[in-house]
Write a structure and sequence with these properties.
The chain contains 5 helices and 10 strands, in the order ββααββββββαββαα. With 207 residues, it is of the alpha+beta class. The protein folds into 3 domains: 1-53, no CATH class; 55-147, Jelly Rolls; 149-207. It is elongated and about 80 Å long.
Length: 207
């Protein structure tokens, strides 16, 4: 069963965060962050507690590039943001300046694609503030699957659902962009047709 808080955010029943999270032990707080809508809301709190046990806590200073688009070394991990904000930047080309696409806060996941496929990073993530994060490497994930196969399977399903949602949203945006581009092209074609009709008599008279 799902429950919705006053801000309209949806949570698993019995796991909705309260106002005392900052007073919880770090590992318990991370478990609660892992099941927020910006992370893996499909997981139960019990599963999240197991997953967090395999995460490595880290501190990241403000201004640090957590990873950059195109990086192919040391990419097989994901991070759970426990405290702080991260800016996600996208670049049109290797020589262009990065444009901030979004800002992610506590309870967000970054780098989950690298955890799954180990391919180069698709975006640049910068620590906008000092960060507290939990790092789950592919090695740790493999150990989790070995120790707790059911939890590992549910974790992978939750990550797959998250990636699927992102892909569907990207497809929706691409469809919208295609429709706008087609409409603009039709407008341009109409303008060119009018210009040709207006210019044709003039050039015909000169001939």
């Amino acid at each position: 069963m799902r429950v919705v808080d006053k801000a309209g955010r949806s949570y698993n029943a019995g796991t909705m965060p309260d106002t005392t999270h900052s007073e919880l032990p770090a590992q318990e707080r991370a478990a609660h962050q892992l099941i927020t809508p910006d992370a893996l809301v499909q997981l139960s709190l019990a599963d999240a507690r197991e997953v967090v046990r395999y995460m490595q806590p880290q501190r990241v200073d403000a201004g640090t590039a957590i990873f950059r688009a195109g990086e192919s070394a040391d990419v097989d991990y994901m991070l759970l943001v426990i405290d702080g904000d991260v800016t996600v930047e996208s670049q049109a080309s290797a020589t262009s300046e990065g444009m901030v696409v979004t800002v992610l806060g506590a309870g967000s996941l970054i780098g989950e694609m690298g955890l799954i496929d180990g391919e180069p990073r698709s975006a640049t993530c910068i620590a906008a503030t000092d960060l507290s994060v939990g790092k789950l490497s592919r090695k740790a994930l493999a150990q989790l699957i070995k120790d707790k196969p059911a939890v590992g399977a549910r974790l992978l399903l939750a990550i797959s659902k998250r990636l699927s949602d992102h892909l569907r949203e990207a497809n929706r945006k691409l469809m919208t962009f295609t429709q706008v581009s087609r409409a603009l092209q039709q407008e341009l074609d109409a303008v060119h047709a009018v210009n040709r009709r207006l210019l044709a008599p003039k050039y015909g008279a000169d001939d």
